[in-house]
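Sharing a chain and its predicted structure for anyone who wants a worked example. Both blocks are below, sequence first, tokens second.
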Amino acid sequence: MANPTTQDLLKKINYIEADIEIQKQILFSIPTKEKGQMEKTIQIIAGKKEEIEVLRQEIQATDPEEFQRIVVFEKALAQFKSIAMETKFESILNRNVNEECALQLKGAPSVECLIKACDSNGDWTVITLEGEIRQFPQKDVAEKPPEPDSQTGVK
């Protein structure tokens, strides 16, 4: 049997992460008095996290360049989440398969991004395709955030 590719390992990690989220929901639904069931679920989650760590180490060993790229994006996402905790974003848009995500700037080339978010002041924060966090004041941006849906109020 052939060794799994980095993409195969990443898919496994994604499936395990989804399973962890399900286990967390199960944990939250267990009545407090059922400590044994809670401990069992916590052990399942811990085991799955160990599986992910083993897969990450395998990626690091077989494809160190891709592993480093993953680490860069994980750090950028963590930094973006930290910014989002401090900033009230009015809209968050992300790049989807076969869709583009770019921030249109005034007098400069647009910035290709994975995620772009606009706060209540009209300032923008993006994660670039290189995994870099960049922030742009409203005065430098040529586009406006999307208008909320008239039915739902969601942007």
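Comments welcome. The longest strand covers residues 111-119.
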